[in-house]
Hints:
Strand order of the largest sheet: 1-2-7-6
Helix content: 10-25%
Number of helices: 2
Strand content: 25-35%
CATH class of the largest domain: Mainly Beta
Largest sheet: 4 strands, antiparallel
Structural class: mainly beta
CATH architecture of the largest domain: Sandwich
CATH topology of the largest domain: Immunoglobulin-like
Number of domains: 2
Amino acid sequence: MFELTRRNNGYPTNYYDPFREMEKLERGFFGAPFDGFFGGKDLAEFKTDITDEGDHYLLEADLPGFDKKDIHLDVNGDTLTIQAERHSKVEQKDNQDRIVRVERSYGTYSRRFDLSAVDADNIKAKYDNGVLTLNLPKKASVLPASRQLEIE
Length: 152
């Protein structure tokens, strides 16, 4: 079981990209003040642990601050998608302009996982204290029936 991700966008990693060099220079000089809003890895995806428990996989995803109703699990073929959405209080107009600073991130967070080795019909999910726990039973390995071969 592994996560489905796109790597290198089809480009080799050893090509020269002047924009990448300028971005590294800019980040080194100014830091990364907008990473949380425009693509910071720490906020763009939630962290997960996957362990092999013998007869099943155990996936634990940290989703603190989410309501259970805002977490969606979808199985499509051999792909599991975990999607969580956090709504902003700023979206609701504050008539008295009491908001001084907003640092927490809001929006939709999503990750996809390969289920090719999992019995998708028997997945069990639980959400408790900000941790989503999925029990992913392994598919029973089908051994070919034994047969006797004739010698020609």
